[in-house]
Structure formats: C-alpha cells, structure tokens
Amino acid sequence: MKSVAIFGGSKLGQRVWRPGSKVWSIAFFGSSELDFRQAELEEDVTQVVAVSVFGGSKVIIPQDMPVTLSGLSIFGGRKMKRSQPKGLSPASAKALHINAISIFGGFTVSED
User: Fold this and answer.
1) CA 15/CA 45 separation, integer angstroms
2) What is the pLDDT of residues 4-55, one digit of tens each?
3) Residue 86 predicted with pLDDT over 70
4) d(Cα 46, Cα 107) in Å, to the nearest integer?
5) How far apart are CA 111 and CA 21, in angstroms?
C-alpha cells in the first residue's frame, strides 16, 4: 500500500483497513498520516517506510502494539511519543517496523 502527499496531505486509516506486509508513505512538501489503530494486520511484522522531504509524516499506533523505529534524519527529526507498555506483548503479537527517512522534514510515532 502506498500513501503519497505532494504539496498537500494524505491520510490512511480513518476506518478498518488492511495495510498488507509493506506500507510506503511519502511526503514531499506535504504531510502524510497513517493510523494503525483500526488496521487489521495480516503479517507478524508489517514494514513501514516513511519518507519526508520538506514535509512531515505521522504514524498513529494502538497503545499495546510493539514498534521498532530506525532510519535517517538530515536537518529533520524522528520522535516516538508513547506511554510505557503495561506488560510484555505475547510472542504472537502483530508488530510494526518503521524505517523513517527525514530530509528537512519530520517524523512522529504516537498513540493519538
């Protein structure tokens, strides 16, 4: 699945959706938002590649979803804002691996 925002905005996930095993989010002079709170994940780990060039990207996650964040920021930033998990997630839990690339842009993972 791909979400592209060029000089504008893009939002995915306002209702139940199936993202697949890999999701691309590209924001070029715009903003992109991916909401995984209602996502029906099919794979154990869903890969998210978020690219922000002079723009911003945001991924919204459920509170109990395991997330790993990696990537590169050049004159931009990456931020993960989330509360501490209440316990360990089961081994069978669905998870996100996010690779965020920000060039003069920003990337945020949050629970809201």
Assistant:
1) 21
2) 888 989 898 889 999 989 999 999 999 999 999 999 988 789 999 999 999 9
3) no
4) 18
5) 21
